[in-house]
Write a structure and sequence with these properties.
The structure is a single chain. The protein is an alpha/beta fold. It folds into two domains: 138 residues, 3-Layer(aba) Sandwich (Rossmann fold), CATH 3.40.50.720; 175 residues, NAD(P)-binding Rossmann-like Domain (Rossmann fold). It is 33% helix and 13% strand. The strands form two sheets. A seven-stranded parallel sheet has the order 8-7-6-9-10-11-12, with helices on both faces. Strands 2-1-3-4-5 form a five-stranded parallel sheet. α4 crosses α6. The chain is elongated, with a radius of gyration of 22 Å. The chain starts with a strand and ends with a helix.
Amino acid sequence: MVRIAVIDDYQNIASTLAEWDSLPEGSQIDFYQDHLTDKDALVDRLQPYDIIQLMRERTEFNAELLDALPNLKMLSGTGGAYYNSIDIPHATERGILLTRTGGSAGGSVEELTWALILGLTKRLREEDRETRLGLWQTSLSPTLSGRTLGIIGLGRLGKRVAQVGQAFNMKLVAWSPWQTEERASESGAQLLSREEFFSTSYVISIHIPLTAESRGLVNAADFAMMQPNAFIINTSRGPIIEEAALVDALREGRIGGAGLDVYDEEPLPKDHPFLSLPNTLLTPHIGFVTEEGYQSFYRSALANIKAFLAGEPTNAINPEALEKQG
């Protein structure tokens, strides 16, 4: 019998989005909605399973955890080729295959980015609350037209965010250590120095992947250059921003606010300072969370699991792990 665990199914919908009953006869599949952070509890739960179905990078599979799961033969991933939460070399050495499904439905991250931008700049959370309290027109919000939108990363996502900025008649500027003038120009943006970028942008939006080089890229010195009414948006990965520096800048009112979908630790701890700061707009890493995206993830992942069980694995990130399985 093959035992399969589907973990971190926060919305309790994984069982409905793919035809899991099409697995070979004798397969046992269990769905878990809660997210375990305690190592011993995680080991107790996952030890019996041959295959673990992941949702992106919600649970970290480091060497210690992998060594504690002697039955594990396959980690069925959802997403692309980058899994910062998995010790892939150690998984390979242990003979644990990691597969991928590709990206989620297009447009979702860009839509959320603009929801955060508009929510912050138009004070939607505050205006909604005050209207419900019987108050009426208690503040003024700025127009975005003519203001500067700064984008860190003009790849597929950054370009789409830039297009909306153009529709709002915003001035587009760009910066990153890897940004070229040619690529910035293609998106209608002006490439600036780091100092010019942070000191002149009204809204800054981050759209680069988390790597060793980008970790902590935006830091206290950058916040010190920003205007006191400026906003920063992060729908990429939390550690790209130095979190403690951002908390200090928000708490001291040195920047206008932050719209965040991603964090150093997820789920966000209940005592995290972000939760008590009035100049934050927070969402629970939902940039990729859509019905279409989840359906694509789980259907593709199921196909990968069935191919593995049939002895013809597909979409392997570390195919050399199969040699260790004999």
